[in-house]
Known about the structure:
Number of domains: 1
Largest sheet: 4 strands, antiparallel
Number of helices: 2
Structural class: alpha+beta
Order of helices and strands: HEEEEEHEE
Oligomer: single chain
Strand content: 35-45%
Shape: globular
Number of strands: 7
Amino acid sequence: MARLAGAHLAGRLKIEEKSFTIEGTRYDRAGTVAAVAVRNANDPARTICLIISGAGDKETLRGAQRLRYFSKSGYIIFPGGDKVEKGVFEGKNLLNHGIDH
C-alpha cells in the first residue's frame, strides 16, 4: 500500500516530526488533522487514504468522520476548529472514497 500511495505522492507530500507539507504548503502537526487520498493503482475502484494527525483522539475522529463530505478532494486539512482547506493533486484522478461510522 505504501508503495502504491508513494508513487502518487512523491514530491507532493512530505511528513516531518512537527510538520508536514502538501503541494508546497507547510502545516504544523500540532492540533491539525489531514487526510491525503489517492486511487489504488491496482484497483481503481478503491482509494488509499493516509490520515496525518497531531490532534487528540477526539479531534482526529471528528476529522475522519467528515471525510465523506469531501469525496472529490485529493487532500483535506482541518488545521483547527471548523476551518477546512482542500485541494486536488493536479494531473491525478479525482477521488471517491467512503467512510462509514
